[in-house]
Amino acid sequence: MKNLSIITIIFCIVCSTCLAQVNISSSQLKGTKWKRTDITSKSIYEYTDKQKIWTSEFGNNHFYSYYLCSTPPTSFDFSKVGKGTNGCYLVEWNSKLKRMEYFTVISFDKSSGKLVLYYKCKGSLDCSDTTMEYKMIK
User: Fold this and answer.
1) Collapsed DSSP state (helix, strand, coil) of residue 47
2) pLDDT tens digits along 87-126
């Protein structure tokens, strides 16, 4: 029984450090551009005060309204878009698909230009849990 308790404690510590979360503010994202470093892609992600603009490697622009919050969202709160929000969850609205997605901010260091987001697949057959690493280019 003692071994089971020790294993459970170690498991909890490992899980909490693997998915550590940091709070950021929308003002920290505003005006920045990012490129993913965990995959080979020429896509660029830019944050304005209200939108994330994804410019695909083919030159197509995709626009997502976003905000930050401190608890996992259950629905998209349009009233928070463009406001000075903060939190460890980056919440986006895909207007083309009419659905919300959210990402956990694992790490953010503007001085070194590094952002790490975690996406937990929420039941869709066409997705998987993903950790995304970005390097700031502006």
Assistant:
1) strand
2) 999 999 999 989 999 999 999 999 999 999 999 987 666 7
Give dist(CA 68, CA 102) in Å, integer.
9
Query: What single DSSP character describes residue 43?
Result: -
Dihedrals phi, psi of 67, to nearest 5 degrees: -160, 175
The total of other beta-carbon atoms located within 10 Å of residue 41's CB is: 11
Could you tell me how many helices (H) and strands (E) the chain has, helices first? 2, 10
- The pTM of this model reads 0.81
| Per-residue exposure over 51-80, b if at least 16 CB sit within 10 Å of its own CB, e if not | bbebeeeeeeeeebbbbbbeeeeeebeeeb
